[in-house]
Automatic annotation (TrEMBL):
A Pfam entry, by short name: CO_deh_flav_C
SUPFAM superfamilies found in the cross-reference section: CO dehydrogenase flavoprotein C-terminal domain-like (SSF55447), CO dehydrogenase ISP C-domain like (SSF47741), CO dehydrogenase molybdoprotein N-domain-like (SSF54665), FAD-binding/transporter-associated domain-like (SSF56176), Molybdenum cofactor-binding domain (SSF56003)
UniProt-annotated binding residues for [2Fe-2S] cluster 1: C11
Claim: Iron is one of the keywords in the record: yes
Protein name from the UniProt record: Aldehyde oxidase 5
Entry's cofactor comment: Binds 2 [2Fe-2S] clusters.
Gene: AOX1
Length: 1240
């Protein structure tokens, strides 16, 4: 009996399938209370945790890898972590810590360059404890005994609605399938599970085949055939085939190589560990990649039933509809036969998805060609496409017409026409992207054609190959090993002074051991209930009736709450508008809260919520886009404007005038921890405690008090930490908390609400989409004389924070450029979508994107590199913004020069030009962009911070402050500050939580201002304390801190001290276009290089260099983490993260399978981060670098321009954000796009 270690996704693993398995979670790996495992230690010590919510998953993936491969390679680590998502760190420090487990040779290849003024590095790998095998759990012997006893027994689990049956063996399975013909077979649960959860499909009986040994085998038969049995996991198949191809001759393994290439890109390691080959085939999902490859290979299936067996060829006819095959209800798939290829047989597989890996394919295909021996004449050709129709599609007719033809350019031209005419993709095809899909279909065949030409050239020495028409360079190669370096600056100071040192995140080790507590980790209180919202399903409609009869009759349901149940106010004022908590009469978008079900359990509440029936009367108008809002003149007030100089006169004196526009899509926060709250009624005077995930506890307190009709002091909000926030946990969580608090008030019991990912994305929305329209006048040398820019933001159906966001965009209109005549207007569009809200950068990334697009377009018109135009127009020395706030641009220019130098920009630009000349089908681009980002709130009253320091008789210190720990490390920095002022070890200082009872009326943790405001308040509180203790210290200078504290207590000196920071009086006079909008500006520069595949639109990020001015960093590694994490979040914003809505306004991209944030394979292969040295004062850094993702966007656009130049297109072209593979491919105009458009 063998023991295997697998990392799996808990959400996919039914608990019944774990019978007989030994489950290890992060808590079992190690603990700070006992002994940490090296994996846990290293990810934390390498600063690989920020919010910490993803850290346990990272630890378990790496731990499993080490159990199977004690000395992994970097490729092993990347594969192991590919299925883990992180929204905070940018992945670099995680890899940094885990690469220390690599073999010595791999570590040398994976090089880091860390330079400090002082000699110590951010962590010392030599100090790490070694892996101790005795610390690992052994497989419980009793489970081995149980497994042997139960190996031939049927197991049945009977639930409330579902019966789970694990057959004893294959014979028992066939018997059960005849008894339950419509019961699905379940091995990995990767199809059945999501269907049950997200589509509400109920299967009364489930047959688990994962334990049937006869279905888990792989055999290599004597007749040159591989036999894969249906329940074999994809991981097992991949590992077996990898071993096989090492020893097989190339001619026999062509098909296996194609299959391996596909298996390596199917899902992630965690999913492949449970997903089966049978499930992949029988799911009949065109997005699943294996079927097209297996069909092209000429595979066949063995099918069994109680009545016998039969064989079926795996062709397009086997798949009858989505989710349906030619199998009869009582039949099961036994195995798939995979033949070897022979000489003169060639096979390739292709796929293209929204991102490079860990994503469903848009189009996948398998292609196999056989030639008559010794010739280039086609004997047979098989081409199968997935994603080109409802089921697998074959170009059978086209292939037959190409048999007997020579493999040359004439065949290529005819093949493209034939394939395109045979595959019918209507405009209404599922998933859209019809033009892109058709282009991919042709591009894949062209790639196949080129590959076979190379093969034939090697095999037929007399065959003349012509590459002149289509030069090579069509493939984007394997991802090189990640190379990352960064520099940091520490100033000379006493060793006991922690400020400025790269201290590990205060909760880092708790993150990695799973001991860090988030709101949903708090144990249930006796009698606790669960709440699930009932939300609107129409974008604009009048509510006619709400029928709760069936829902309230269901088991466990306690109540349905709606507007009539609100004890206080169901409405609250926000600026000039009234905002409803529960919608009473008219819904304005899909996803608005109409009511809520309260029940004994989550599942009961969820089922009952689905049985609340709301009747609507649809209303007009209904529209969702900025363009439609403009047509309807649907805008919020006020409309803002800033102006410097005389724009119209500037146009008159310009050499050239350019007009254009750029659209920038929205972005989902995708924090790892979804929104939620626990409300605990105290039973006296309307008191309620809220344990809540919010960045703005005071606002949640206010909204809850308003809804309950009580004063603020009756509501106490507790925030331990957030699993990510990014601005998304400021506004929306307040209304969610109010609803939950009402439920607690009405029932008198504790109530918990945890939004599912899909609910969260549907209800809370994200970053505002923007449309920027511009007119710019410039001289022939690139000097911009005048610019007129109008920003349109899609605000959604209520104002939320849209006014602040459009203002932020306008205030960043100039970025780093002194444009003498500049006018900007900001207009908020009212649409019938959920209200967009705050997001990291707060309008800055959108506003900056437009002016940088202007710079690029001007450069293109002048025939100059964009970076030269940037330099020509850049602010220098003492300057004034377009709203007349003064600033010194010296450090901005320093960052620019230093970044270009560190990045070897000019040499690489030449190299790229040469590369693009030599390669037709892949191109490279490089872009460097500066930033000037305002720090603080434009409303002066928000620029404040508060702190409370309590010193206890034993000398320990309890520190409370007005900030929220959400991964940025504010608690760590505050402890460092307190430690410096109080001159005590950091271990003596503790921060328990953020609470409205400790520090009232706090501002939100936002605007990159938390450390500034709170840090000064903590400093003030600690200095106040030290001033009180000073007389005692002077009397007893040689005594200890503990002595001084105890003496102060005896002398009746208060050991509780408050601190406060009053920030600057920021404000803007919008009528006069002037004001001091920000406390100060942070500067930085980013340079990125990319490579695109012109035939698919895929891109890879080759290198990124960042130089950032953070002043005198309080903690360099935390700041670098914010810089890199912000950049990678921006990378997603500008390239992969695309929000899609249905025609009725329903968000389609709800969840990780549809919405793609960057993964570990998306980050640059080389990333160098430097902090500008010899600068003063700490600077806010949380938000600015999100904008640096645009460097990848503009580098992509430069690469596209190079591709277009090859076909004679020199004009400016539009590329909107995000630059998805679809947009990149269609912008790379060539004969294939032209062919599709002629047909399309």
């Amino acid at each position: 009996m063998s023991i295997s270690h697998f990392s799996v996704n808990a959400c996919l693993l039914p608990i019944c399938s774990l019978n007989g398995a030994a489950v290890t979670t992060v808590e079992g790996v190690g603990s700070t209370k006992t002994k940490m495992h090296p994996v846990q230690e290293r990810i934390a010590a390498a600063h690989g945790t920020q919010c910490g919510f993803c850290s346990p998953g990272m630890v378990m993936s790496m731990y499993t890898l080490l159990r199977n491969t004690p000395e992994p390679s970097m490729e092993d680590i990347q594969e192991a972590l590919l299925g883990n998502l992180c929204r905070c760190t940018g992945y670099r420090p995680i890899v940094d810590g885990f690469k220390t487990f690599c073999q010595v040779s791999a570590i040398h290849i994976f090089s880091f360059s860390i330079t400090n003024i002082e000699s110590d590095d951010t962590f010392q790998a030599d100090d790490f404890r070694l892996v101790d095998p005795t610390q690992d759990f052994i497989f419980p012997p009793e489970l081995m005994i149980v497994a042997q006893k139960q190996s031939h027994q049927r197991m049945v689990f009977q639930g409330e609605r579902i019966k789970w049956i694990t057959p004893a063996d294959l014979e028992d399975l066939l018997e059960l399938k005849s008894q339950y013909p419509h019961a699905p077979l379940l091995a990995g649960n990767t199809t059945v599970g999501p269907d049950m959860k997200f589509k509400g499909i109920l299967h009364p009986v489930l047959l688990n085949i994962g334990r049937i040994q006869e279905l888990r085998e792989i055999k290599e038969c004597d007749d040159g055939i591989w036999l894969l049995f249906a329940a074999c996991t994809l991981t097992t198949i991949k590992e077996k085939l990898e071993e096989a191809v090492k020893v097989l001759p190339e001619e026999k393994s062509e098909g296996l190589h194609a299959l391996l290439e596909t298996l390596g890109k199917v899902a992630s390691k965690q999913i492949r560990n449970v997903a089966s080959v049978g499930g992949n085939i029988l799911s009949s999902n065109p997005k699943f990649d294996l079927c097209s490859v297996l069909a092209a290979l000429g595979c066949s299936l063995t099918i069994l039933s109680k009545d016998g067996s039969r064989k079926l060829n795996l062709t397009e006819g086997f798949f009858t509809a989505v989710g349906k095959t030619a199998l009869k209800p009582e039949e099961v798939m036994l195995s798939v036969y995979i033949p070897y290829t022979k000489k003169w047989e060639f096979m390739l597989a292709f796929r293209q998805a929204q991102c490079r890996q860990f994503a469903f394919s848009i189009i996948n295909c398998g292609m196999k060609v056989i030639f008559f021996e010794g010739t280039n004449v086609v004997k047979d050709l098989k081409i199968f496409y997935g994603g080109a129709g409802a089921t697998l599609v074959s170009t059978r007719n086209a292939s037959q017409q190409l048999v007997g033809r020579k493999w040359n350019d004439n065949l290529l031209t005819d093949a493209c026409k034939l394939v395109l005419s045979e595959i019918h993709l209507p405009d209404t095809a599922h998933g859209g992207m019809v033009e892109y899909k058709k282009t991919l279909i042709l591009s894949f065949f062209f790639k196949f054609y080129l590959h076979i030409l190379q093969k034939l050239k090697a095999m037929v020495t007399l065959y003349k190959i012509r590459f002149s028409v289509f030069p090579l360079g069509c493939q984007i190669g394997h991802r090189p090993l990640l190379i990352i370096s960064y520099s940091e600056a520490l100033f000379s100071q006493p060793l006991e002074d922690p400020v400025g040192r790269p201290n590990v995140h205060q909760s880092g080790f708790k993150h990695s051991t799973g001991e860090a507590i988030y709101y949903d980790d708090i144990p249930s209180i006796d009698g606790e209930l669960f709440l699930v919202f009932v939300t609107s399903t129409r974008p604009h409609a009048k509510i006619i009736s709400i029928d709760t009869t069936e829902a309230l009759s269901m088991p466990g349901v306690v109540a349905f709450l709606s507007a009539k149940d609100v004890p206080g106010n169901n409405k609250r004022r926000w600026f000039h508008d009234m905002v409803e908590l529960f919608i009473e009469e008219e819904v304005m978008c899909v996803g608005q809260m109409i009511g809520a079900i309260v029940a004994e359990t989550r599942e009961q509440a969820r089922r009952a919520a689905q049985k609340v029936y709301v009747s609507y009367q649809d209303l007009e108008p209904v529209f969702f886009t900025i363009e439609e809002a403009i047509n309807h003149q649907s805008f919020f007030s006020p409309q803002r404007k800033l102006e410097r100089g005389d724009v119209d006169v500037g146009f008159e004196t310009s050499d050239q005038i350019l007009e254009g526009e750029i659209y920038m899509g929205g972005q989902e926060h995708f924090y790892m921890e979804t929104q939620g709250v626990i409300a605990v009624p105290k039973g006296e005077n309307g008191e309620t405690d809220l344990f809540i995930a919010t960045q703005h506890a005071a606002f949640a307190q206010e909204v809850v008090a308003n809804a309950l009709g009580v004063s603020f002091n009756k509501i106490t909000c507790h925030v331990k930490r957030l699993g990510g926030g990014f601005g998304g946990k400021i506004m929306k969580i307040a209304d969610i908390s109010a609803a939950v608090a009402i439920a607690a008030y009405r029932t008198g019991r504790s109530v918990r609400c945890v939004l599912e990912r899909g609910e969260d994305m549907l209800m809370t929305s994200g970053r505002h989409p923007f449309l920027g329209k511009y007119k710019v006048g410039f001289m022939n040398d690139g000097t911009i004389i005048s610019a007129d820019v109008t920003y349109y933001s899609n605000a959604g159906n209520t104002l939320d924070e849209s006014q602040f966001i459009i203002e932020k965009a306008l205030l960043h209109l100039d970025n780093c450029y002194k444009i003498p005549n500049l006018r900007g207007r900001g207009i908020m569009c009212k649409t019938y979508l959920p209200s967009y809200t705050a997001f990291r950068g707060f309008g800055g990334p959108q506003g900056l994107m437009v002016i940088e697009s202007v710079i690029n377009e001007v450069a293109a018109k002048c025939g100059l590199p964009a970076e030269e135009v940037r330099e020509i127009n850049m602010y220098r020395n003492e300057s004034h913004t377009h709203f007349r706030q003064s600033f010194d641009a010296s450090n901005m220019v320093r960052c620019w020069n230093e970044c270009l130098e560190k990045a070897s920009y000019y040499q690489r630009r030449q190299n790229i030009e040469e590369f693009n000349k030599q390669n037709r089908w892949k191109k490279r681009g490089i872009s460097a962009v500066p930033i000037k980002f305002g720090i603080g709130f434009t409303k002066g009253f928000c620029n404040q911070g508060a702190a409370l320091v309590n010193v206890y008789k034993d000398g320990s210190v309890l520190l409370s402050h007005s900030g929220t720990e959400m991964g940025q490390g504010i608690n760590t920095k505050m402890i460092q500050i307190a430690s410096r002022i109080l001159k005590i070890p950091q271990s003596s200082i503790y921060i328990v939580e953020t609470s409205t009872a400790s520090v009232p009326n706090a501002i939100p943790s936002a605007a990159s201002f938390g450390t500034d405001a709170v840090g000064m308040a903590v400093k003030d509180a600690c200095e106040n304390m030290m001033n009180r203790l000073q007389p005692i210290i002077e009397q007893h200078p040689k005594m200890s801190w503990e002595y001084w504290v105890k003496e102060a207590y005896l002398q009746r000196i208060s050991l509780s001290s408050t601190g406060f920071f009053k920030g600057p009086n920021t404000d803007v006079d919008w009528e006069r276009s002037e004001g001091n909008a920000y406390f100060y500006f942070t500067f930085g520069v980013c340079c990125s290089e990319v490579e695109i595949d012109c035939l698919t639109g895929e891109h890879k990020n080759i290198r990124t260099d960042i130089v950032m001015d953070v002043g005198q960093s309080l903690n360099p590694t935390l700041d670098i983490g914010q810089i890199e994490g912000g950049f990678v979040q921006g990378l997603g914003l500008y390239t992969t993260e695309e929000l899609k809505f249905s025609p009725s306004g329903v968000l389609i991209t709800r969840g990780p399978s549809q919405y793609k944030i960057p993964t570990i394979c998306d980050i640059p292969e080389q990333m160098n981060t430097s902090l500008l040295q010899n600068t003063s004062n700490p600077h806010g850094i949380g938000e600015p670098t999100v904008f640096f993702g645009c460097t990848v966007f503009f580098a992509i656009k430069q690469a596209i321009a190079a591709a277009r130049k090859d076909v004679g297109l020199h004009d400016n072209f539009t590329l909107n954000s995000p630059a998805t593979p679809e947009k990149i491919r269609l912008a790379c105009a060539d004969q294939f796009t032209q062919m599709v458009r002629c047909v399309y």
